[in-house]
């Protein structure tokens, strides 16, 4: 007898305090507030670099009781000529202190069109776990990957606190806490037998979705697609990428095959978020390709993780898939997380005048298969 996928909503587990702490810190950063990041080697008060003003820098230094520093990814430091590595985080200090204009010029390549501020010689050195956690928190907030921090000699009352270890383990813990919270039949164009199943992490973060088409047999390899959300391509039909074509094409192909699953993952812009993706588009208009634009911003060329996808498949009862993808990294990632990929199914669509360079870069520099 053929088994059916388990799409029944499950009781939501209580959120671990570590997830709640990171969620609160992310919200505070996005509001332009201060966060206390605690580490075995010391603590620091931090703000997101893109949120600072001269006034907030003064408040940060006064609250911490120490001078303000800037933490940048190795990618961004390399783009500025301050570092010689692509990995890790660099701590940048000026001889005579920072102002907001200098921080903006260093952290945001979009600010390079402004006059270069006058600043003293910068000292950039590889930083440790505290700085790395601060930058990681800015990334989780979908802000520029740069943090302004000051070693905390004093802790202001009511400060939002989070441990560095809670930040670095957040994505894995959030993925493992995913639960099915809702499902409904949603007939789609070219796939009238579709159901949408929503998965939510226990801290109440943004949901990932599974589009289940037909009645897949979990005892057999299931035709599957991992699709990262793309507001511009999926919803608006942007011609700068092939995401919309891939989304609708995958739904049609799965339906034509008879059954399968498309996982719609909340990781816009290869994991950097919509606002940063728009920043990357502006850099592409200035002459950088899709990968170098991310590197100029300080991100890796692909910031996505696929543990949420593997967890969603497990919760649906799927252990083996035939994966619709041109990206071998997805095959490797699922295998690392315990999902067997029995076949890579090519997923190619015609290019247009606006996305030819984008597709060529993915093929030549990211190893996408066509």
UniProtKB/TrEMBL annotation:
GO terms for biological process: riboflavin biosynthetic process. Keywords: GTP-binding, Hydrolase, Metal-binding, Nucleotide-binding, Riboflavin biosynthesis, Zinc. One of its GO terms (molecular function) is GTP cyclohydrolase II activity. Zn(2+) binds at residues 230, 241, 243. One of its GO terms (cellular component) is cytosol. Its EC number is 3.5.4.25. It catalyses: GTP + 4 H2O = 2,5-diamino-6-hydroxy-4-(5-phosphoribosylamino)-pyrimidine + formate + 2 phosphate + 3 H(+). The active site is at 302 (proton acceptor), 304 (nucleophile). Residues 181-346 form the GTP cyclohydrolase II domain. It holds the Pfam family GTP_cyclohydro2. GTP binds at residues 225-229, 246, 268-270, 290, 325, 330. PANTHER family: 3,4-DIHYDROXY-2-BUTANONE 4-PHOSPHATE SYNTHASE, GTP CYCLOHYDROLASE II-RELATED. Belongs to the GTP cyclohydrolase II family. In the C-terminal section; belongs to the GTP cyclohydrolase II family. Catalyzes the conversion of GTP to 2,5-diamino-6-ribosylamino-4(3H)-pyrimidinone 5'-phosphate (DARP), formate and pyrophosphate. This is GTP cyclohydrolase-2.
């Amino acid at each position: 007898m053929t088994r059916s996928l388990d799409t029944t909503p499950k009781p939501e587990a209580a959120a671990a305090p570590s997830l709640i702490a990171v969620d609160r810190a992310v919200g505070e950063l996005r509001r332009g507030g201060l966060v206390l990041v605690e580490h075995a080697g010391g603590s620091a008060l931090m703000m997101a670099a893109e949120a600072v003003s001269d006034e907030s820098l003064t408040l940060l230094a006064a609250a911490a009781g120490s001078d303000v520093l800037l933490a940048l990814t190795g990618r961004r430091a390399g783009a500025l000529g301050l570092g010689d590595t692509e990995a890790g985080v660099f701590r940048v200090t000026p001889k005579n202190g920072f102002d907001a204009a200098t921080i903006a010029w260093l952290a945001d390549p979009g600010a390079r069109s402004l006059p270069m501020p006058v600043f003293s010689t910068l000292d950039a050195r590889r930083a440790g776990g505290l700085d790395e956690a601060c930058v990681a928190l800015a990334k989780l907030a979908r802000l520029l990957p740069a943090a302004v921090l000051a070693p905390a000699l004093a802790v202001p009352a009511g400060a939002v606190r989070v441990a560095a270890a809670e930040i670095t383990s957040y994505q894995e813990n959030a993925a493992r806490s995913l639960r099915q919270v809702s499902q409904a039949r949603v007939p789609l164009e070219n796939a009238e037998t579709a159901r949408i199943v929503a998965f939510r992490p226990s801290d109440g973060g943004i949901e990932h979705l599974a589009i289940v088409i037909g009645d897949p047999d979990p005892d057999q390899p299931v035709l599957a697609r991992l699709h990262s959300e793309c507001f511009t391509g999926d919803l608006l039909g942007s011609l700068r990428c092939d995401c919309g074509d891939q989304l609708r094409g995958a739904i049609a192909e799965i339906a034509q095959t008879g059954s399968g699953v498309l996982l719609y993952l909340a990781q816009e812009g290869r994991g950097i978020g919509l606002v940063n993706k728009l920043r990357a588009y502006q850099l592409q208009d200035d002459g950088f390709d899709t990968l170098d634009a991310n590197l100029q911003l300080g991100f890796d060329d692909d910031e996505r993780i696929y543990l949420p996808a593997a967890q969603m498949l497990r919760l649906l009862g799927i252990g083996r898939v035939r994966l619709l993808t041109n990206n071998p990294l997805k095959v490797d990632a699922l295998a690392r997380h315990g999902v067997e990929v029995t076949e890579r199914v090519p997923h190619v669509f015609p290019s247009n005048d606006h996305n030819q360079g984008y597709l060529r870069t993915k093929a030549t520099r990211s190893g996408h298969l066509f």
